[in-house]
Amino acid sequence: MAQILPLEAPPSDCQIAFFQLVGDLVPSTSIFSTCRSISQLIRHQGGIFPSLMPMESNFSKALYTFDIAQNDLAEGFSDNLTVQQVNASVPDIISGFSANIKKIYDLGARSFWIHNTGPIGCLPTILANFPAQEDEAGCAKSYNEVAQHFNQKLKEATVQLRKALPLAAITYHYYKK
């Protein structure tokens, strides 16, 4: 289950709020809806708060960044799932991710930066706890293949999102290994 960890300072508005999500397959868009509701409440309270808030129209101008899968895949292995079982979970992760992008888009978001996952077989926790054949870099080869499988499916989903969301600017940043 995801944990939303507190920030150093409260977010100034939902369109620029940053949350650190730990160990969730795909965060719910309720985070964004709740933040937007809180922002609207603060705006209408008066005092100094409205002058500190960005304009609500900025929601569509913000850049929404998503760095997905590192925790999800690693947690699957930590839960003693096999490589095959973690690979089998990829379609659900991608489907939930795509659904959430569409919901955020429906709320007005237009600019997305999607960053795929790195070589999970190089994570210290994987190397220390899950013996596997090593690749040329000394990383766990089969675990890196899971990350590559995930990244391929994420890239395919990004292509579909670009078709489904014609007003969106979607940048897919990939780590290639």
Automatic annotation (TrEMBL):
This is GDSL-like Lipase/Acylhydrolase superfamily protein. Pfam families: Lipase_GDSL (PF00657). GO terms for molecular function: hydrolase activity, acting on ester bonds. InterPro entries: GDSL, SGNH_hydro_sf. PANTHER family: ESTERASE-LIKE ISOFORM X1, ZINC FINGER FYVE DOMAIN CONTAINING PROTEIN. It comes from the Eukaryota. It comes from Prunus dulcis. Belongs to the 'GDSL' lipolytic enzyme family. Keywords: Glycoprotein.
